[in-house]
Amino acid sequence: MRQFFFIWFFLLSGLSFSQTITGTVKEKGSGLPLPFANVFINNTTQGVATDAEGKFRLSGNFSNEIELVASFVGYVTEVKTVSFRGKNEVQIEFQLAFNESNLSEVELKAKRDKSWERELRRFEEAFLALPDDPYKADIEILNPWVLDFGKVKANKGPNYLQATTQEPLKIKNKALGYDITYYLQDFRVMRNGTRFFGQVFYEPIKTVNPQESEQWINARENDYHSSLRHLNQSILLNSRDSIHFSIYQVLPEKMDRRRTNDFYEELNKSIVSVTKDSILRRPMGDGTYRVFLPGRMEIHHLDKPWRNDYYTNVYHAISWIEAPERYYDIDLRGTLINPTQLVLSGYLSRQRVARTLPLDFEPNKNFIVENLQTEVITSPALKLNRLREKAWLTTNKPYFYPGETAWIGGQMLYQDQTLADSLSRVLYVDLINSKAEIIQSATFPIEQGKISGGMSLSAELAPEDYALRGYTHWNQNFGQKDQFITPIIIMNPGFQPKVESTDSEPLFGGVSMIPEFSISDSLSYRVMDLKLDFLDEFQNPIDTEFILSLVDGEAVVEVDSLSSLEKAMDWLDEPLEDDFNSELSSSIEYGISIRGKFIPSNKRQPLINPITVVRGDLEDYGQVMTDSSGNFWATGLYFQDTSMIAIAAMDEKRRPFGSVEIFPRKAPLVSRTIPSYAYTTELIKEEDRLLDVSGDYILLEEFVKEEVKVRETMAERNYGYGPPSREMGQERLEKMATWEQVFQSMGLFSNYNFGEKTGPPMVILDGQKFPFIHPSEILEGLVPSELESVKVYSDPISLAIFGMLGYGGVIMIETKKGFRTGPDSDRKFNSEGFQIFDIAGFTEYQEFPKNPPSDQYLKKKPTIYWEPNGQTKDGIYQAKVKVPYGVKLIRIKVEGRTQDGEVVYHSSTLDLEKPILR
């Protein structure tokens, strides 16, 4: 109680009586007054315009220290800190400098293209409101054309997107009833978050509609009661708990053992309740107060209904606040003095301009929060939109002849990049004729969002206009606009396309690619030392992932692409219609998939059973459950061409029973409208006819520095399975008494497979796999302290190498007496009672040939080089290209994206007789 009265005394002493600010606004240099200039207190509704002599006067109850802002069109805005300590009247003089950096209207419009529009959408989501915030529909930037975007290379750290303005942003917030003038000083979108600040003036919107006015009053009160400012005032004034907030301290040492999403299970274990009067706060003597936090605090917004995944039995919003310096400073209104003193996450981190109230907003102390609805839009279309993906594909050249090989490369686009690892890993590619018939099909893996494959075109193909379609099984939930389709020409032998040249629209963005090369001769071919430098708009190296093709500039006619990566990214700006809904009946594929149905042999056998799937002689295996109708879906297999797959339901004694039926995969319907190029044909000379045939081409050979390596054992190389997600060595294992302690320390397995239920993890003991056996049976006879190592594979990237058998995760154990040399096992699969099916896997194709024999003459071919997975190191890509004699010109095309997501495109012709060296 003594502490409460102590705080309350200082609160009363910090209150100010009416104060006055007077002054003038003049032009810097000339000293001429600026009439009708705007003068306001930052982040408030308090402001005036200067009179004809440039004078102003502001009166009110101000904080001891405020920011006063003066602005005038065409002049640089000026901000001054005003202190009222010991006085009630302050005089200020502003001298505004003329802004000479204003862009002309012509210059502004020149940069307003699709890329600018895309950056504007990113800006609005980070600045105005999140996509799932209902306020997003009620807030609008009235003058977006004053915004300009650019990439900035920091002295330390990655590039970031910056937004700048030459005029203040005019914003109408119809959710809270304010016209906002925002003088943006800095705005940055970085990989780990967004930050922005500026000076803001709020002007309440005038309305004659009493219902609208009442709606704004309630919205402002509701917004205030769930704000950081209200939380701070609750702590400062020690208001009663359980009215609006409950506060808990997170115990970091207990979070490692957290197993459940049950709030009541975690209470007093990983979190403990904290009363507001136990939080230390001290007056600083200057009208501010310091709040000391004992650690990371979990805030429950009791009157804010919310759907959250953090706790399964909590239905209100949750936030977390943490002070890196263990304290933060606020004023008597609860306003955070220095935003860098607090790290916010959860609900409080959602605050944007749409939900920000002016600092002079005074809440109604008698207001009661009631009948609130969840603030998150629950529209199915909005939630489903985040789950969308689409392929973008390109080929080594724009047209082909029957019998040639078309090499294919591409990237996946995601509406929500954070979900990329949980979405599809299988892409289907169809060759479609002008009658909308599928002529050829291929299946390729998606590896870390990239596609690489090849299609050997039938020698019987009729020359005409075709289309190349790419889609995933998951795409079928969202309709045809999520399928990729692009025209492709199959030419009549002896002819080539003749295309009218068109002026392609220049791409927005500052990334450039500069080629350098030199040529040397050998007995059988010429060798091009190629170097590609990728530079940002500041001429700094920038890392890029790209698809690179080099073709004979005299043998291949250039055709403007109708499906560039830049155009494909327009799909990111096409959300689902508001009334869109889907049952998501087409599942995500994590590998080759099998859909089927279990048929019991008698009525006593249940329809819900585990189905065992085995490829070959235990090369891969797994178990999935049937549903109540007996249907099952198995995915995650990884093999090429066709493989024998054994499938059966197994009883408790591991004996097959009943039978299974496999459903064939159905391709989605083909659109009747097939895109095509506008072109004519022209005859080519017989001696100029060149074909791309697998096995006859040259692939770039990248520079690889030879390293002397000590021979590793199979165990040291993890039996060929790559690095684990987590690992515990002998030193730590010796301190573990039980397996529960081991897995509590290493972390539990997570289900990364969207919408799928996984079985238990598989155990690999000294390189030997144990199929169909629960891990507990194997671990029961092993003592952790007597082991060499335990390695866990649980993330989607690591698990991909295991195929279906790693669907639920993998535990790799190496004993101190481990002696096996590899994953081979004496155990052989007994397929008795299983049904055997021939299942098609990923399409086999001959990759673009790499190194031609040095003692054989290299013949001319249309495609000199094809690299679908190009990647720079420190902004540089280097390779040796082996070029046939007789090639004079090489057309080079690069298309891809930087690590920051900016599109890179470059197309030019290299004259081999004129090397480019720098």
UniProtKB/TrEMBL annotation:
First and last residue of the signal peptide: 1-18
Q: Which Pfam families match?
A: CarbopepD_reg_2
Keywords, ordered alphabetically? Signal
Report the superkingdom from the record: Bacteria
Name it. CarboxypepD_reg-like domain-containing protein
- What's the source species for this entry? Algoriphagus alkaliphilus
